[in-house]
Amino acid sequence: MARYFNGKEVELLAPAGTFEIFKKVIRANCDAVYFGGPSLNMRMMRKGYNFSRPEMVEAIQLAHSLDKKVYVTVNNLLNEGEIEEAREYLRFLEQAGPDAIIVQDFAVLALIQDMGLKLPVHSSVMMNVHNREMIEALSQMGVTRVVTSREMDLLTTRYLRETTGMELEYFIHGDMCSVHGANCYFSSLVFGMSSNRGKCLKPCRWDYRVKKGGFVYPSEYPLAVKDMFMYEHIPELIHGGVTSFKIEGRMRDTEFVLMLVNAYGDAIDRYIDDPVGFERSRDTQLLYDNRKRDLSTGYAFGRPGLSYINKRYEGTGKFYSTGKVFSTPTEERRLGEKRLGEVAAYLAEAAASSKAGGQEGERNNWNKPTDPGEQTERGNQNNRMELSVHVNNAAQAQAAFEAGADHVYLSGDVFEPDRPFTKQEIKQLAAIKGNAKLYLGLPRMMNELHFEIYDGLLSGERLPIDGILVTNLGAIHKFASKGYPLVGDINLNIFNHLAAGMYAKLGVERFTASIELPLHDLAKLLGNAAVPMEVVVHGSPALMYMEHDLYENTEVFEPIAEEENRYVDNRILVLMTDKGENPVYRDAHGRCHLMLAKELCLLPVMNQLQDAGLSVCRIEGATYQPEQLRSIVSTYKAAIERPETAGELFAGMTPVYAGYTLGALQFDGGAPGQVEAVDGACEGKQEKERVQVRM
Length: 695
What we know:
Structural class: alpha/beta
Distance between the termini: 65 Å
Shape: globular
Radius of gyration: 25 Å
């Protein structure tokens, strides 16, 4: 079955969570169905859902007998322990014969290439595809369809379809996120439950208070967005270049999915049959009466602003699909002595295992000091870890250079009130950097205008920089030929050595590991990576990166109380619960970055990280005052040069914000399909905030 309008294919793509649901949905008014198998997909938390392998085979055969298509989700990020499982699973899928698989992790593409499989691949919405350069790069990798970023408007989809020829899939109904795809790490760092691995506990649905300028504003659920609703805009979707109309809902029950499929299918058929006389709102009331939340067209027609935020039905604290409580406001775990000991011991064990396996010599080929004659107090003379610092302004960059940083990254998402780095500032910083290296950072999300702007900058006179900090596949594809070394930023979400290897083939020379990696997974990545790896060891990295402007709350609403910020300047917006305050910085592009309430601090285990294979440790310095940053950089520099003093140095530090945390290293991870327990998420609350640890 296939639908066409003026020669353009129009596919209605329905979800199915179980084989029983599938058998009814595939016979309804849709053209294709997507579902997940027994592992490696983003919907593994509901017991009894997803398909067994025999059910997958039968489902594919049934769909094809009805002249319909099946797409299988293999859309998790893979840890090192899941790679062999993925290899075997992909071999099974090629035999089962789905019409495509939906993929997030570049490791899956690497496995398909390595095994010579013929599986068609669609890029998941979690790849966050949002520009032409990304699509062209994916096309060269064999991807035949792109599920677009949730923040993409229909003018952009039309442009991308016309300029690339790529099939585009677009969410038309269902649950949405306020955060850019694969750029939400809140659930991981608070609960050890990765939203990029299908285990999100939805901190975006918590009841927050908004605070700024000494005032509190009446915004109960400022991150909780409405459900997508494009029923009345079938013409705009078709003429916007969208091939596949995707309904979200693999965890929904049969009746709800059938209602959506039949309503949207009928609307598409009616428009194809009579476009002029098309009645847009025939089933609007039906869909409205059966909504789970209130409804919105999202970013389809531009930034929705506060109209995107949901109030009705929020506060239940439950997943709509299961009725179970997902989470309540929870404090980030404090750095505790017991956990530090566990982390240090495991990293030491991993390092010993790596050396026994013969991988140390392999790493030594790339993990060398800036000065070959430089020595450390450690036994390995050729394995000095280096220090990088991510900065927001020239004063921070100067402080980092003076304190001994080896690498300084100039942010591409500069936080207000600072402005983006000028060419003159770059030249001035290059003149004082000494033996250190200076990098130009790019924005996380880059539209076509951003590419034009940065292409103009990088195509002119040679900049006095040592490389580019790249944030998305499109930037790698566009700028790899400019002659500047490339370093992969955090949001490439490197979880395994295969993904790093895929990016390395495109020209990236060093990678920042995902900040979501729990202890076991990080250790395995460091042990297996054949390229230099960088890890964020200090600072307040962004937990959420969003197009949604939280500052609008303070511009639209009148304050209801007065209260000062506890840890950051009153000019900075804060989201607060009774468990803490998370600062939110707005960048020069108008995007918001929600940060950790505490400071990540891995100083006490620096020695063990170095032994485990870490090449570069990174300080997220964008939110510090220059003198604060100078002190932090100096401390880490001293710990690198004399690792045995790390405990003493840590004991002398004072947190700038609400204490210290180990971030994702609070959690073990490592087991395929493992779900960390949520109970005890505040473990360590009784421990002292400041502990003295000597490693």
